[in-house]
Amino acid sequence: MVSLSKKSPEERLNICRKYYRAGFAFLPLLWLINAIWFYKQAFKVEPYPQQAQIRTYVIRSAIGTLIWIIIIVAWNITFQLLRTKMGPLGDFLTFVYPRGYY
Amino acid sequence: MRSSVIFVYLLLSILCVYCSQPKRIVDQMYISFDHARYCVRRLNGTHEIGCQSSASGNSGRMYMIDNDEEFNSYLMNTKLIDSSGSFIIVLNVNLFNTYYVDKLITSLSSKLNGLLLYLKSTSSRPEYFSHDDQCPNHRYSYYLNQTEIINWNSKGTGLFFRSFPFPIMLIDEEDDYKQLIKFYRQFNYSQSSSPTCGLELKSFQNAAHSSKTCIRRNDISHSLIDLEETFCDPVGGLNIYSKLPQSFIIIPKKRQPKSVILILTTTDSFQMFLKIKGTTGGAQQPATSLITFLALAHLIGQEQNEFKQQDKEIIFVTLDGDALDYSASFKFMFDMINGSFPIGNQNEEPIKVEHIHSIIEFQSLSLTDKLSLYTYPSSLINQTFIDTLVHNNPMIIPMAVDSSLPPASSQIFLRQTSSLSFPAYILTSTNQNQLSNHYYHSFFDDPSTLSINISSLEYNSTTEFSQWIKNIVEPFGQTLIESFVGIKKNITIKQEIINNLVYCILKNINCPLIHNVTNQSTGNSFDSSNETSLPFSINTYPVAATPTFPFVQNILSYFLRDRIYDTYNLNETTCKQYSNNDSFCSYIYVGGYAPSIMSEQSFDGYCVRSYIRSVSSMSPAFTIDNYDLSQTTYPAWTESRWTTISLRLFVIPTRKHEIITLVIGILLLSVSFIVCFILRYYTNISLLQPSSS
Predict the structure, then answer these.
(1) Is B220 in contact with A92 (Cβ distance < 8 A)?
(2) How far apart are CA B205 and CA B481, in angstroms?
(3) B217/A91 touch (CB, cutoff 8 Å), yes or no
(4) A44 domain-assigned
(5) Closest-CA residue of chain A to B207
(6) Which residues 75-94 in chain A show a CB within 8 A of chain B?
(7) Contact partners, residue B250, CB within 8 Å, separation at least 6
(8) Closest Cα in chain A to B641
(9) Residue B222: which of A95, A99, A101 has the nearest Cβ?
(10) Does residue A55 fall inside a structural domain?
(11) Are B209 and B48 in contact (CB under 8 A)?
(12) B647 membership: H or E segment, kind and range
């Protein structure tokens, strides 16, 4: 387990930056983890020079996570409601067909 | 000390072996009924019909309703209806019609979890039991746009074509009924909270919504997972046709117009309640017509020297799949219009609509005194033919000109040619626009309706039925010879042949007849269907291992064989050599069916030269590219797949019993936790460390 207290502030900034940038490859979980893990570092620990940058990364990761949650929930609800009404498109998008039910 | 320990140990193990009953607990909880009939789901282009249960079965409190008074008292008994969340109604089979079923569905709505029908005994079967529509096969009939439709099957309930959200099963064996009633009386004594019987019906169907959806889902496979799951299969079997192997129109010779006569019959039926290894019904429709058809084929084969003298071909055609919206007839006409009839050799000139002289059909025949002859259209029928037919057989009554046709495959032949090309002659058993069959398309349509005592029927017993067939077929053959060959000849068929056909089709397919007309390996394939009658049910594609098609193929081709080969003493290798030189006919080496062979000498084996073709009878809807299955140009029926079907009886305990069981269980759980805790605390055994000696 990586323990952030043992790392130097530059290394912490490095990790946070890597997670932030990697999250743009359609990986919202990385942003979620980034926001939660570095929350303490960004807001609760005594200030150190790299903290401002870490703070921006954490806030942006949190916003990104929120946007993704909205997109995924909206698509989930749409698919559940409109799967049968979409006709052939609904069947092409389904991965496992419900046996015995439409 | 040690010996006593061993002695006690041995004593305990002996006691355990002899005193314990080797039965699983689940066997003591459930009584299962393995011989129940069940209803399955089928789909057409736009709708689904049939029954569906949940994947783990539909269960509920059992309530038996035997007659009308019990039915009414049950519906008024709100206290009883409220006492349980789901019911399985056990209904007398006489009460299975739209009135009672609809009333149950509206009164109980979601509490009705299943329906189990029972038949008290074979002698108490209802007088009418048909769940086909009142006007069968009307969705694609010739009379689509007519406002006045004739109800040929007026006692039909139409329940087969309805979709039920719960499973329906039927018990038709007397032992099952006795067991059911014994448990019911034992437990459902009072309507209060005493333990009651419950039933679980499981008949989960894979397909849903419509053929279009189902076929689409069959075809989509997400290739990450390699298993393609098939949900439904299209309905279709084989259309078989055969003719005398005397004349072929080989290209470039031209076929004369109006030179082909088609004789039609069907080989399928349906039942609402299926059973694995059970009778399928179909004795009146289509078995009677099929036996008449095969006997006529034998007569024509017998008199082939007369038919050689004229240029018209008589082709015998069996259609499989017409019970559901005439799929087989549509396929046959589709093939004919597109030039692929007859299939097989490209050098044989195709038969098109203009080459057809007329069609003759045997449909829905029953053991009746009078037969009805329907003909259409009046502009094309040959009145002399009808007069000769009636003159030779006074049993036949010609119906009025242009009267409505009964449900018959000919309707589609006429529809696809707009009734402008050839006339149709349909021989059927109807009386005042009513089919004589009380059990039309149901499993009750068995040989007892033909006055046949099936248990005492032997391979060569002459019954009233087989004599009736002889009295129909002989005049018919005579009429064909008079009309097409032009000579008056008294022809007869041996009663033995018809007796054998009746035995094979209605009692036991694995009969000497089929073994005499097939070669060794084909004959052996019938051994697995020993003591079963010819099954008449809905066949699906890919064609399952039903014995119906090989049976019809071999017998039809044998009856229409080239009889000159009966006089040749050939062996198997010579027969094979003949087949290498002839690409139109098939040659097989068989044992020979004695009653059919006219020559004086008899040999050990005969080479049979015959013309036989089989084509898939799946509706054109499934074979045309980019055909939208929800269109109504062609029927698109499919049958769902299913895995296990089961019917089980169990006892629902009272509320008090359930609570006590739960409390004891929780107590045991907590006691075991406490005991384990105490053991851990007070003992010093450590299993991982080596013991100090």
Answers:
(1) yes
(2) 52
(3) yes
(4) yes
(5) A100
(6) 88, 91-92
(7) B347, B348, B349
(8) A100
(9) A95
(10) yes
(11) yes
(12) strand B642-652
Distance from CA of B683 to the nearest CA of A (A): 38
Please choose, from the candidates B429, B372, B363, the residue with its C-alpha nearest in 3D space to the C-alpha of residue B403. B372
The answer to whether the CB of B371 falls within 8 A of the CB of B392 is: no
Cα→Cα distances B531→B114, B255, B519, B534, B545, Å: 33, 45, 20, 10, 16
Domain count across chain A = 1
Closest CA to B275 of B206, B203, B178: B203
The answer to whether position A98 is within a domain reads no
CA distance B41 to chain A (A): 10
Which of B43, B213, B215, B639 would you mutate first to test chain A, the one with the most A CBs within 10 A?
B213
Cβ neighbours of B224 (radius 10 Å): 6
**Can you list the residues of chain B whose pLDDT is less than 70?**
1, 19-22, 189-193, 221-226, 685-693
The answer to whether position A54 is within a domain reads: yes
Alpha-carbon gap, residue A42 to A64, rounded angstroms:
17
Taking every pair of Cα atoms in chain B, the longest distance, rounded to a whole number of angstroms, is 115
> What is residue B222's three-state secondary structure?
coil
Closest-CA residue in chain B for A86?
A: B213
Task: Note whether B431 and B344 are within 8 A (CB).
Answer: no
Spatial distance between the Cα atoms of B356 and B379, rounded to a whole number of angstroms: 16
Q: Which residues contact B172 (CB under 8 A, 6 or more apart)?
A: B35, B37, B119, B273, B275, B443
Do residue A100 and residue B55 have CB atoms under 8 angstroms apart?
yes
Mean pLDDT of chain B: 91
Model confidence over B43-56: pLDDT tens digits?
A: 999 999 999 999 99
What are the chain B neighbours of A93 within 8 Å (beta carbons)? none
Alpha carbon distance B351, B432 (integer Å): 37
List CB contacts (< 8 A) between A101 and chain B.
208
| Candidates B202, B218, B220, partner chain A, best to mutate (most A CBs within 10 A) | B220
Residue B227 C-alpha, separation from nearest chain A C-alpha, in angstroms: 11
Q: What is the per-residue pLDDT for B439?
A: 95
The tens digit of pLDDT for each residue in A26-74 reads 999 999 999 999 998 888 888 888 888 899 999 999 999 999 999 999 9
* Pairing verdict, β B606-616 and B112-118: unpaired
List C-alpha distances in Å: B637 to B233, B412, B618, B620: 9, 17, 9, 11
Q: What share of chain A is helix, strand, coil (3-state, %, to 5)?
A: 70, 0, 30
What type of residue is B396? I
* Interacting residues of B373 by C-beta distance below 8 A, sequence separation 6+: B386, B389, B390, B396, B397, B398, B399, B425, B426, B427
Say how many CB pairs under 8 Å bridge A and B.
28
| CB-based contact A99 B206, cutoff 8 Å | yes
Which structural domain, as residue segments, surrounds residue A63?
8-93
Q: At residue B436, what is the residue type?
A: S
